[in-house]
From TrEMBL:
It comes from Halomarinibacterium sedimenti. The record marks R17 as: Transition state stabilizer. Belongs to the type-II 3-dehydroquinase family. Its EC number is 4.2.1.10. Keywords: Amino-acid biosynthesis, Aromatic amino acid biosynthesis, Lyase. This is 3-dehydroquinate dehydratase. The gene is aroQ.
Amino acid sequence: MKIIIINGPNLNLLGKREKNIYGDLTFEEFFQTLKEKYPQVELSHFQSNVEGELINKIQEVGFSYEGIILNAAAYTHTSVGIGDAVKAIETPVVEVHISNTFAREEFRHHSHISAGARGVILGFGLQSYELALQSFLK
């Protein structure tokens, strides 16, 4: 089973930024623990701070992977293009967020991705990614 995690802007700074919200573990450290815990999954990840690169990656893998775990970060709330890309592909997408976006600023309460996603997981820290991964394995 091929699953990719696609991360949006500023998630390359996990472990360094706003540790009270995002924790002190880097994404690479967390990703290695996922790979070790789920060796039966061909797991990869991609991160970009650029909206178009995220859309290109979604389109690239959206017809050949079994699952996409997408944390579009701030683009979740602003990018109609990423939302449209999710709707245009065949691969199921689970939208994830590390924080509970509904407990944050009001502009974070709307997602352009949710309508095209299989499901949404938020507020469980980095464990949100693992919960999304488990949803593909069941």
